[in-house]
Amino acid sequence: MRYRVDELASRCGVSVDTVRFYQARGLLPRPEREGRAAWYSEEHRRGLERIRDLKGRGFSLAMVARVVSGDLDAGEQALAAALTGPLPGEDPAAGPPERLSLDGLAERTGVSVTLLEAIEREGLLVARAEGDEPYTAADADAVRAGLALLEAGVPLSELLALARRHDEAMRAVAEQAVDLFARYVRDPIRGSAASDEDAAGLMVDALGAMLPAVGAVVAHHFRRRLLAAARSRIERDAGGQLAAVNQSAPAAPSADPDDPRPTPSADPDDPRPALSADPDEPGPAPSADPDEPAR
């Protein structure tokens, strides 16, 4: 069966512009030409439906292009599908995670689209997938957590600056973690598995075990670092307050024997005059016996 471009688009539930966009990206072959007419075949229809299916499962256009061109082997396709489907800890029976557009995320969280765009630019909000609905309910939970920080008194500008620094650090850590997986897990499985299908299953199993483990290690380490920094700050602040108290305390009496000032009596009710600090000053020598009369 042959289709005109508008018929193909209608049959597959997409717009004519989408069909031409996929052609421009090399995801669909060019139509056959008869004069000025362009005709599409069943091959185009199947290809378009496959692209829609991959996009619906969360594949990026770059991954779709690799699948269509055959660059992704069975193991990589399985890993890509695992990354876009329910992750470890999510209920597989619930199906794919709920997708939200930017407007939907704003409605769910009560945060304006403008603010969400600013948060995304600074790296605090990372889309799960591409397309018109790249966010999930987990992103809504993260935005609400950020709102709690703002409500506690943290200025928005400071929170965005912190998000920028955190994103820069986490990008490097994430890239290194993926590189470790590729070198020490994926590649050895490829070299030892009996078939591509076996390799795909082993890779997905390894990903399912490692992803929550890495998340737990990183979250635990950051939490402990945060607590250690808080304790250190309290200790520094307490030390500074103690130093300020010491600086404001009155000076202690002089212990210099040549100081002409009289040394005050330790007992304010003692009627006896304080002893002179000058050994050459005339006066009665103190008796060692308190009952002996003065000589």
Can I get a quick summary?
The chain is mostly helical. It has helices spanning 5-12, 16-24, 42-56, 61-69, 74-84, 102-109, 113-121, 137-151, 156-192, 196-248; strands spanning 32-34, 37-39. β1 and β2 form a beta hairpin.
Mean pLDDT across every amino acid position: 82
Question: How large is the share of residues in beta strands?
Answer: under 5%
Put simply, the count of helices is 10
The CATH level-2 architecture of the domain at 98-169 is identified as Orthogonal Bundle
Structural class call reads mainly alpha
Instruction: Give me the oligomer status.
Output: single chain
Span from first to last CA?
Answer: 139 Å
Give the overall shape, derived from the CA principal axes.
Answer: elongated
Q: What name is given to the CATH topology of the domain at 98-169?
A: Multidrug-efflux Transporter Regulator, Chain: A, Domain 2
Helix fraction by DSSP (H/I, runs of at least 4): 55-70%
N-to-C SSE string, H for helix and E for strand? HHEEHHHHHHHH
Characterize the biggest β-sheet: 2 strands, antiparallel
Return the CATH class of the domain at 98-169. Mainly Alpha
Strand order of the largest sheet: 1-2
Residue stretches low in confidence (pLDDT < 50, at least 5 long) are none
